[in-house]
Amino acid sequence: xxxxxxxxxxxxxxxxxxxxxxxxxxxxxxxxxxxxxxxxxxxxxxxxxxxxxxxxxxxxxxxxxxxxxxxxxxxxxxxxxxxxxxxxxxxxxxxxxxxxxxxxxxxxxxxxxxxxxxxxxxxxxxxxxxxxxxxxxxxxxxxxxxxxxxxxxxxxxxxxxxxxxxxxxxxxxxxxxxxxxxxxxxxxxxxxxxxxxxxxxxxxxxxxxxxxxxxxxxxxxxxxxxxxxxxxxxxxxxxxxxxxxxxxxxxxxxxxxxxxxxxxxxxxxxxxxxxxxxxxxxxxxxxxxxxxxx
Length: 294
Known about the structure:
The chain folds into four domains: 1-120, no CATH class; 123-184, no CATH class; 187-213; 215-281. By secondary structure, it is mainly α. It starts with 5 loop residues before the first helix and ends in a 10-residue tail after the last helix. Helix content is 54%, strand content 4%. Strands 1-2-3 form a three-stranded mixed β-sheet, with helices on one face. It has helices at residues 6-12, 50-54, 76-97, 118-121, 128-133, 153-165, 172-182, 188-214, 217-237, 241-284; strands at residues 24-27, 41-44, 65-68.
């Protein structure tokens, strides 16, 4: 954070002051004429900061493209994501609005997040052939026969490019192998194994539901309240507020979130049960007024 801000000056007067270590990264992009500014990429260390949760901020409506990682750095995955979702659509619309050819030159420095082979990671539009083939399982007769002269690797390359934009390490061989596997019908043994997996998943689900039933609502309320107290204590007294904040958010999201959601479901169900019970009593109570006068 900048040193010369009102907040920092106020905090510097407090005893035991430590410089603020909060940080973020902003990526800007504009054209040479200055009449096009693409949506900036903002990278922060938290996906859902406390302030945005409190005020229910919809990050999709912000004037920046919000992304996060632990160090608030622009990584290759985040940069490619910005190129495909922010830069590409904005530039294309600008060129169309100004009756210009659909060509653009993006100048970048040699930062590690700027991939040299960026063209490999760019999304391509969905072809008519891909849309038509999507109907194969539901309506096979409507799928046009494959053109023997058309390159078969185009779709595979599209899948590889899409996977790389998501940060996946995927090759054309991986995709081809996966497609070949789906072309063969399952054997009886494979069907039996799939059925066994389904039974095991159902058993795990029933065990999880049984565990939830064993926990009383009072236990859930108590543990959630204790966690709030521990979290507040750590925020006040931990020597490194930034570390305490990050670790507390991680624990809250990975460990405490299921208990909190279970408690919310139970409270919602109890409220609905009380409402229905009250409504039923009102409908069953006899009228205290006499018969209408003739």
